[in-house]
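Exercise: predict the fold of this chain.
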Amino acid sequence: MPVPAAQARAGGPGRGVCVLMAELSRRSGVPVATIKFYLRDGLLPPGTATAATRARYGDDHLRRLRLIRALQEIGGLPLAAIRRILTAVDDTSVGPHALLGAVQYALGPRLDPDAGDPDWQAAAAEVDSLLAGLGWRVTPGAPARTLLTAALAALRRAGAPLAGPGLAEYAATAGGLAEREVAGLPDLPAAGRAGLVEAAVTGVVLYEQVLVALRRLAQEDQSARRFGGG
């Protein structure tokens, strides 16, 4: 779990073995210069000072570095967005749902609604109706909501309605997957808040690519079965 605020101020390293910065760098795979930058910028709490220019670091620092790397390398997030997520991680008054929401919103994408476009308006109404019918509890500003609206608006402009399964069937499949994914996230006492966020980032970003790849492979298979594959 992340270093508590009082312990961070006191320079506590957290549980587990304490190591010097060079060993922390080796274990985390993060260069020493980058670790020093994170310390200066407040993204990483200070270690326990052992001399004027030396400090020791614990397991909490390793977990924090691993989380920052996941947010940067998997999520592709800038430091400003990472800082917002870490603030939520360290704020124990933020519950798991709000914490995962902070991750979803940071991951984006960021799209500007085109409220004056009739295709956008029709798509937005379709999305509103779909979510209401499903009973999904989704905030009005959810990035994925805007992404779905943009995709449906683009389909309308292209005159290309969804082929095969309807939107509701896609949503039902996604709902079943999401139920199992969220149920599979680690509990806070076991993984800590940073571990929960790291699992969510990995799940959202990497497994989206897994789903895309599996869908394309399945489409190739079905095309070969229907039209014949050479």
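Check your answer against the key: The mean pLDDT is 85.
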